[in-house]
Amino acid sequence: MREARRYRLPPIAFGLGTVILAFAVIEVLIRADVISQYVMPTPWQVLLSFGRVVAEEDIPHRFLATAGECLAAGALMSVFGMLLGVALYRFRLLRAATETWVAAFAAAPLVLAYPLFLVIFGRTAWTIIMIGFLSGLAPVALKTLEGLTGVRPALLNVGRSFRLTPAQQFWKVLFPAAVPTIFVGFRLGFIFALINVVGVEFLINFGGLGQLINELAERYDLPGTYAAITFVILVSVLFFIALEGIERWLRPAS
Amino acid sequence: MTDASLITSSRRLLSPVAALRIGIVAAVLGTWEIVAASGLLFRDVVPSLPAIGKALGQLLIDPVYYANLGVTVGELLGALAVGGGLGLAVGMVLGANAYLGKAFEEFLYYLGPTPKIIFFPVMLLWFGVDTGSKVAMGALSCFFPIAVSALSGMRQVDGVLIRVGRSFRASTWQMVTKIYLPAMRHPIVNGLRLGLGVAIIGTLLAETKMSNQGLGFLIIQTYTTFNMPRMYALLITLFLLAIGLNALIAWFSGGGAARKS
Predict the structure, then answer these.
(1) N or C: which end of chain B has fewer CB within 10 A?
(2) Helices A175-204, A125-149: crossing angle, 10 deg rounding
(3) Is residue B77 part of a domain?
(4) Left (φ > 0), alpha (ψ -120 to 50) or beta: where does A220 sit?
(5) What gap in Å lies between CA A179 and CA A172, rounded to an integer?
């Protein structure tokens, strides 16, 4: 039994190998006409079309457009989310009255109101930015509140013993101690913002990477569509990994 | 009744929290009505509250609304059955086998939060423009949260329960139905709650993109005809439905279920 385990592939290699094998099986099934090539291009065709899509579809510009919308939504979400979180921490009555509303707001399918945003902001980047901003607002606010309320009383007492002013107590004690938890909110908020930004770009056919998928699908460029979807997935995954890395980097500092 | 007793009884009736809530709602509605009457924004973008109330009333007695609601609910149930069933199975297998878990868990965690709506062109090709592609979008959306919840739930099952099942020589099916599923009901219901939320989004967004039936279709129809009061009415019913279902499952998985047991 132990011998058998010793010769097993590392799990990650097994996982990646299975995915590659699945693609190989799909390649064979499409070439054998079991799966129609008018519905699904071969993985090899998709791989080859990456270069064409990058060269012909102005990927750098589209990437920057999506990144810019995400950053704008993220900046708004960070500022207003933190302000809301601090207000909920500072005013207990406000917290008691509205914390459940903020939680309900986080669960509301805001992106479904995109036709309303289209009417208000038109088919512009602002529609995309505002939906991204609102979808990430509640997690930042709730995590800011959680971070501030979770600060150890000993730290607050140290601040008081030094007779810190309320502003000093906030900037020197409360905020630094709450930063790791607040960043969890940022991470969640940025994930929601990215999902909604790309999704709305696709739905309203405007902006960067989401619009690219829509355009390629409307042109019935199958390998290009699949390649663009794969590209967006890769960008999203790299974005999540980067956010996780920053979060881990912040954690030991607490 | 004296003034003092009146004040005391009103204080009992209205706590500061309730008073603040009423105040916030009144302020929001008042601001809305002022903006609607002022004409500051483009005409009809912010309709008056009576106009929205009238549209809401008309919507709730409109058979067309219920026919489309039925279509969406049917698609959602199909999505939950397919995506939820597959998610549960995959989560349980990966949770039960440490090697497979290590091999595929990362895929679930990283693919889970990616935007699913971008798969819609593919779903259209695979399942057609009818309800199939919407069910597929909902299923794809709810698969990941349910799989991740089932996976973590499976790992939290008490080892004693598993040993008891094995000592009775329970078959795999008996282990699943008698030991694992009952022991992990809370994470499963939690996953279902998360899955339902994203399934609603996936299904309705697909309906807004390309469909001729369902609530998403009704919403995009009000946009194309610029019937703003009806759009607000539809969004209100939709948000209440989504938040209500979420709260109902949360109650079922948390307090309500605990009280019953």
Answers:
(1) C
(2) 160
(3) yes
(4) left
(5) 12
Cα dihedral B120, B124, B129, B133, rounded to 10, equals: -60
Q: Could you give phi then psi for residue A238, rounded to 5 degrees?
A: -60, -40
Q: Are residues A6 and A101 in the same domain?
A: no
**Residue of chain B whose Cα is closest to the Cα of A107:** B243
Q: What is the mean pLDDT of residues A54-71?
A: 90
Is the pLDDT score of B261 beyond 50? no
Helices assigned H by DSSP within chain A: 2-6, 11-31, 43-56, 59-90, 92-107, 114-121, 125-149, 153-161, 166-168, 175-204, 209-218, 222-250
Q: Please give the average per-residue pLDDT across B109-116, as a whole number.
A: 87
pTM of the model: 0.85
Q: What's the domain range around A249? A: 56-253
Whether residue B197 contacts residue A109, with contact meaning beta carbons closer than 8 Å, is answered with yes
CB contact under 8 A, B222 and A104: no
pLDDT in tens, B131-177: 999 999 999 999 999 999 999 999 888 889 889 888 988 888 889 88
Q: Does A84 touch chain B (CB under 8 A)?
A: no
> CA-CA distance, A53 to A45, in Å (whole number)?
12
Tell whether B75 is covered by a domain: yes
* Residue B21 within a domain: no
Of B107, B122, B243, the CB nearest to A229: B122
Q: Which of A19, A93, A210 sits opposite B16 (nearest CB)?
A: A93
Residue B94 structure tokens: 């990966």
